[in-house]
Design brief:
238 residues, alpha/beta, Glycerol-3-phosphate (1)-acyltransferase, 7-stranded mixed β-sheet, 10 helices, 45% helix, 15% strand, globular
Length: 238
């Protein structure tokens, strides 16, 4: 059975009310506190994880900065990545996502509720506007998630190259960078079937502005990618 179908079937009596409430929050997003909307999204996704034969293992939560205003950088494996991150992270955050995701039900509401930014990478002006807006928000204390590969790797736990431009928000905001390694996330929604699967999320030690301030974005991208890759290789060797 398809895993998404399994999640829905096991929660069929909850789905209409939960999704309806989410749509209401998304339509009237400015009327509700951020934590109220985010907690409802987390409730939906944590319920989905429990009913979808997914063992979500989280490591290194002590590495998450105590103060808001940081940028999370994660490898991108599949459709479950951002959903796993919501289920794992307690504090509200927003994301920079490719514009195509905004057309997917639930993802659209998630974007609207968290005030995330869909980005059109082929529109340079729009991309710069997103970077400027997100930089301003990071400076004001919001946290952002970015997938610097730009798209799913479709190669399992092997990563694509990280785009240096993905680090401009952090450098302009002089914000800490929190590297995150996702392992086996692609097995949840990007493979057929619904057999039990384990997904690992590793929060690595933050990279402070003092550590990267003398580096260009290409060098920062290579450094952060290297740390994530090292973690993935270490965990998948076991």
């Amino acid at each position: 059975m398809n895993r998404l179908a399994l999640m829905i079937i096991r929660n069929f009596w909850k789905v209409p009310g939960a999704y309806g409430k989410l749509c209401h929050y998304a339509k009237h997003t400015d009327k509700y506190p951020e934590d109220v909307k985010y907690n409802h999204i987390r409730y939906i996704l944590q319920t989905a994880v429990k009913s979808g034969n997914i063992d979500l293992q989280i490591y290194g939560k002590e590495n998450v900065p105590a103060e808001n205003g940081y940028v999370m950088i994660a490898n991108h494996q599949g459709l479950f990545d951002i959903l796993a991150m919501v289920a794992a992270i307690e504090r509200p955050w927003a994301a920079i996502l490719k514009k195509e995701l905004y057309n997917i039900p639930f993802m659209k509401q998630l974007v609207d509720c968290t005030k995330s930014y869909p980005m059109d990478r082929e529109d340079i002006r729009q991309s710069m506007e997103v970077i400027v807006a997100a930089t301003k928000e990071v400076k004001s204390g919001r946290n952002y998630l970015i997938f610097p590969e730009g798209t799913r790797s479709k190669k399992g736990n092997d990563m694509l190259e990280f785009h240096g431009g993905s680090f401009k928000i952090a450098t302009k905001a002089k914000a800490p960078i929190l590297p995150i390694a996702l392992i086996d996330s692609y097995k949840v929604l990007d493979q057929k079937g619904s057999a039990p699967v384990t997904v690992q999320i590793h929060f690595l030690e933050p990279v402070t502005y003092e550590e990267y301030k003398d580096m260009n974005t290409t060098e920062i991208a290579a450094m952060v990618r290297g740390r994530i890759e090292e973690t993935i290789k270490k965990q998948t060797r076991n």
